[in-house]
Amino acid sequence: MDNSNVEMNQLLNYTLHLADTNLILAQRNGECCAYGPILEQDIAITNITLDLLGQARNFYQYAALITGNTATEDSLAYLRTEREYKNLLITEIPNIDWAQIVLRQFFYSVYQYEVFKHLQTGADTQLAAIAEKSIKETTYHVKWSSEWVIRLGDGTTESFEKINKALQNIWQYTGEFFIPADYEKNFIDYSTIKEKWISKIKIVLEEATLKVPENIFMQTGGKTGIHTEHMGFILSDMQYLQRTYPGAEW
Amino acid sequence: MVSTEKQEEQKIWKLLEQVSDPEVPVLSVNDLGIIRKVEIINGEVIITITPTYSGCPAMDTINMDIRLKLIEHGYKNITFHSILSPAWTTDWMSEEGKRKLLEYGIAPPQYQSDKKGMKEENIECPQCHSHNTKLLSQFGSTACKALYQCYDCKEPFDYFKCH
Ligand SMILES: [Zn+2]
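^ Those are the sequences you sent over. The predicted structure of the assembly is below.
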């Protein structure tokens, strides 16, 4: 490959990483539909899911354009194999309970906010446009999920126990947020993003009377296609229809 | 030639007033401020449109409704361009649109979107016009709305949030 091909390939992979992370979290959150703790929160989590899915579509459409040939947003979303997905591992964690769902959303939304802020002024104009559009939605997600983390942490003994358990479970998946894969280096510099992320989440965790876990082994691999044991189940659920009835639409 | 194209473009803008948002049917696509450009180039009608929210499921329906409206009036060659930047904001909603929302029972956006950090509090109740209201949920029946309740008349209501 010559240089411009290498660059194109990096852009494609980075765009897919952004798309996949949103898609898999949307798939996970989508499982909450009709199972939220109360009606308003059922609507909230599914609205957030819709935003994530819409943003994923914008990234997939761009990735399809870069890929060319017969690639479409649907073929990229539904017809790749597990190792080809570049989503962050945090999106794959099973829902378990409401505490795990809101904490996962909180960590990811704060991260996404900082990434979008960075991309907005980046050299790639299409990524910048998608980021500019998406960040307005992400702002709501950050606010909603922060409030829930505080409410559960600074709530009853039981709610504290649940969110603290979620924290012990989920923290190990936040390390890879800031470790750039080879294809990312042209687009993003995680050093300032990491600083901002940590300081923002610390404020909320403190208000929630929660402590950032220390010396925890950090899981990695999502960005390069090495996934948790949950990923295969997610994909079989998500891809079943397109694989069984190729090209099905409604 | 140029002037007839300009006239045609004006006609199309007029027709778009008849195409409504399927989720908030009282608003036309013009009221929403999502139509960014109407052009006629060599007989081709090009509509540039921007989505309200990334995942708004109404966008496909809106494109189809616009296409049908234009076909009904004899336009054949119609193309849609979707643009994301500059991102849609409720500041682009027409005053007429805000008035229609209120009449319909939905509180219209109350601030300019650049008032960052502005808390959306004391939203005017569309029923009794009291400002003594509270937020029930930031996420309402569609992506663009939040759910509020009025302390005075006790009615819950939708608020079209600033974006
Ligand atoms: Zn009232």
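Residues B 125, 127-128, 130, 150, 152-153, 155 surround zinc ion (CB under 6 Å). Chain A has one domain: 3-244.

Shout if you want it in another format.
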